[in-house]
Amino acid sequence: MFGEIRNQQGETIDYTVHSGESRSDYIVIIGHGVTGNKDRPLVVGLAEGLGAAGIPALRLSFSGNGDSGGKFVDSTITKEVEDLGSVIDAVGARRICYAGHSMGGAVGVTRAAIDSRIEALVSLAGMVHTEEFARREFGEETSDAGFMWGEERCPLSSVYMNDMKAIGSVVDLGAQISVPWLLVHGSEDDVVPIGDSRDILAKATNSPEFFEIAGADHVFSDAALAVMVNKVTEWVKAQAG
Fold it and tell me: Fewer CB within 10 Å: N-end or C-end of the chain?
């Protein structure tokens, strides 16, 4: 629908569009978390739910992930913020909501703080304290030698670790989000603690909505997926008008 999308490095961004029949002026861009891609069940489930409700959705794989160009070892929040900007450029004059999961949530907060083209924001188990996350999850691995969660397709790079440390936390960006904002988090998330969402909520000044799903894990497994999709879809429909 939007032709070939490339980032600032000239790398292709793989994406899939779910056309919503009732709206053509609005689109939800969905970004995944670290080691993820556009085909993860929660990303597909959300895109399908939005499309079925008449809201177009675009799910993407950030560069270095899935079938997108680039190298996984170069995948950082900083680069993905730029990738998101390239996708926003490609969708043109449509009204834009961005929904990001996990590290994709940190990408969304960072982009929304500087890009007025994003008019609504959804954080799904959104990562906030980046340095703390990297230390907690990967601190025992050796950068440029080890792997993320033991997955050989996901080497742990010093580029990634240095970016996470340089950012430190996106918590203070909460005060810079001026658009409608929904945060969804599971109470049993053991990858990005629910405290991350609560911390950035405390900094927010525009009264975002917080929706806790009791018993849900980091990827909204099983019944939690439908709860998340239904909540986000209804919220987005209200924003789209």
Answer: C
